[in-house]
Amino acid sequence: MRWARWKDNDTALNSLSQQGFHFYPVMLMSRVSSAASVVKKYPFYNCCLDLMEVKERNSSPLAYGEPPWIFKGSALYQLHLVKAETARAFIPKDCRLVEAFGYTLGGFFLASYDDSPAGIFDELVVIAGLVWNPPTSCAWAARVLVGSDEACLHGRKVVGLPSQVARFSKKITALPRTSGSKTSSFLSTIGLRTSSCSYRNHMDVEVREIKNQTAMNICNINLDATVSQQDFKGWMGPFIKMSLPNFSGRTKYNPNLLKYSCQIECRVRAVRPATVSGPYALDADKEDSSENQSSDVESVGRLPTGTKRNFSISVMLSKPILALEFNHLKMRVEAPTTVATCSQNTI
């Protein structure tokens, strides 16, 4: 805490406001041990500069710089068939879910950024489903787990995302490849097949959400991966450009309904879907929560925190249908815009 005193109250208040500080009259801060002695000087405003607010201000949009925000690295974009009743737990009541035969298209986006406004960090975006936005649709994030305090704060306050700080633990092992053809077996027999082709890199990613100094296991993601893009000599797929539109907001940190887009440039190729496993304690809770709450909930904000976590894990555990690996990724994120309401038009 730092104390400041001005003889001119208006000058003091204006000075603090212009600098973005939050201040409180000392008379309202009885919790400060030295307040009693300062209050005796009541003719003047004595203001306390809350250092936590200063830290928060430094981690707000100014710390990220002006949009668009650029992220570089690699990612796995995996699409799942998600039950519509599960996805509706996250979609606002005035938004229409894109669904067919009781399912919508969700999944997850697992990224590792080596260059971003928040530095190097990992991110897991759990996508609940698609929301109708004529003439196309937008993705809705159920949960965003990031390995950066700064990225978490920016996601919450600026982009309106349900961001949480998480810990990502990675383990890479080299596993022998199974013989894919008689030709490969023959090459191995005569010694013409190199040892690097006989093994594939296998990565286990453990994601733990950090809350109140406690790490809670969210999921384990098991996938094939290259140790580094520089060492990978295989085909990374064609170079593409694509746009991923998203809805966000309606959270306690940002109550507005927002829309933003991610412009992506990368090398893309289809890969074998990653295997996802959840915490063992989830099974019983998931069945009870899905039957009793998912069908009649209006917004994820009305669900208990534990239930929201379980619903997002349910999305991760749903059936995968396609996995795309993004290499040499460059993602350009535009500043979100406020939207009055989602479309209620039928599809």
Automatic annotation (TrEMBL):
Segments spanning the bilayer are none
Q: Gene3D superfamilies in the record, alphabetically?
A: Acetoacetate decarboxylase-like (2.40.400.10)
Q: Known InterPro entries for this protein? A: ADC_dom_sf (IPR023375), NDX1-like (IPR039343)
Location of the region described as Disordered in the Swiss-Prot/TrEMBL record: 280-303
Could you tell me what this protein is called?
Protein NEOXANTHIN-DEFICIENT 1
What organism is recorded for this protein?
Anisodus acutangulus
